[in-house]
């Protein structure tokens, strides 16, 4: 069998290179090139998985080859290009088994799958980030936000509902009083709050829920 020239390179160099590519790009490029490279693919533990607009063969390849503990970033999408993708992914992996996951982005996820995923992230032991893009916000409001969450971004197509929690946590909030009240009740660990609103009445009373709050930034638009 001809010797592969890439086999002379140290595994650490490939790890650095892999950090700049999506998981499906890595696997389709380096799989079955040589036993040495295959062993590197198995040992690499920082795969970034982007399933948004991905081809089905690439989706199947990732689910077949990767272990849950190799995934540090995951993007799931139930958009028109990838319908029912979250449900299919959950048939291969339980979100709770992604023990090294650092960042999770959910795009237009169907309500049942979204509820399943959000219930499982409450079992995470590691710190992580969560982004919800055009998902049903009411599902999030019905659960206790886990203390391990270090960054939460919520982006709805509805211009009246756009929220960001960051650090632990900071919130950029507009217009939805009911959502704001419920979020304050669900995030008693909130320490930093950044509010962007057009009416100070939305914060009255709700701030009393935030017993650990140490910093408040308030921007009011007329």
Provide structural commentary.
By secondary structure, the protein is of the alpha/beta class. It has two domains: 112 residues, no CATH class; 65 residues, no CATH class. Helix content is 31%, strand content 21%. The radius of gyration is 20 Å and the shape is elongated. This is F-box domain-containing protein. It comes from Rotaria socialis.
Topology of helices and strands:
Layout: H1 11-18, H2 23-30, H3 35-43, E1 47-50, H4 56-65, E2 71-77, H5 85-92, E3 103-107, H6 111-121, E4 128-133, H7 137-141, E5 149-155, E6 162-165, E7 171-172, H8 177-186, E8 192-197, E9 215-220
Helix pairs in contact: 2-4
How are the strands of the largest sheet arranged? Answer: 1-2-3-4-5-6-7
Unreliable sequence segments: 157-172
Order of helices and strands: HHHEHEHEHEHEEEHEE
Query: How much of the polypeptide forms β-strand, as a percent range?
Result: 15-25%
Largest sheet: 7 strands, mixed
Q: What brief labels describe this structure?
A:
alpha/beta; F-box domain-containing protein; elongated; 222 residues; seven-stranded mixed sheet
Quick description:
The chain is an alpha/beta fold and 222 residues long.
